[in-house]
């Protein structure tokens, strides 16, 4: 079974001047031919042209529907070797834009004015085995 990858590009919006192109339709055909040949050089096969709607901003708060002329191309993907793992799904956003970050390193705290008197690290994080559990709470008396 053959798998394909696709590429979609906007169709040319205006024609190109050429020696033999006299009419606007001829000039547009020259521009379209240039795009098709450019993609074919990279192995892309022309599939079809589509006109698709896109909702876009109009003014400060408005929205309007705009239609885009698109050219669809495809090319065969390289066959996957037997036993190779399938492609892993990719995130919706680049890794650099990921909301998860590595934790920031904790800066070293400055020494106290008299470091010989109190070991601040031992006071800040006492040994859990030496800690006395809190006294149990008594239920409030009803009366």
From TrEMBL:
It comes from Paracoccus aerius. The lineage of its organism: Bacteria, Pseudomonadati, Pseudomonadota, Alphaproteobacteria, Rhodobacterales. Residues 1-22, 86-143 are annotated as: Disordered. This is DUF4177 domain-containing protein.
């Amino acid at each position: 079974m053959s798998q394909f990858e696709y590429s979609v590009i906007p169709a040319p919006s205006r024609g190109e001047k050429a020696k033999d192109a006299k009419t606007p339709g001829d000039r547009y055909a020259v521009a379209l031919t240039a795009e098709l040949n450019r993609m074919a050089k990279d192995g892309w096969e022309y599939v079809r042209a589509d006109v698709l709607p896109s909702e876009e901003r109009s003014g400060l708060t408005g929205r309007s529907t705009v239609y885009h002329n698109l050219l669809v191309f495809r090319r065969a993907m390289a066959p996957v070797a037997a036993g190779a793992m399938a492609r892993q799904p990719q995130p919706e956003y680049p890794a650099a834009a990921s909301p998860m970050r590595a934790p920031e390193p904790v800066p070293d705290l400055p020494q106290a004015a008299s470091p010989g008197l109190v070991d601040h690290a031992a006071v800040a994080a006492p040994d859990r085995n030496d800690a006395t559990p809190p006294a149990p709470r008594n239920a409030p008396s009803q009366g």
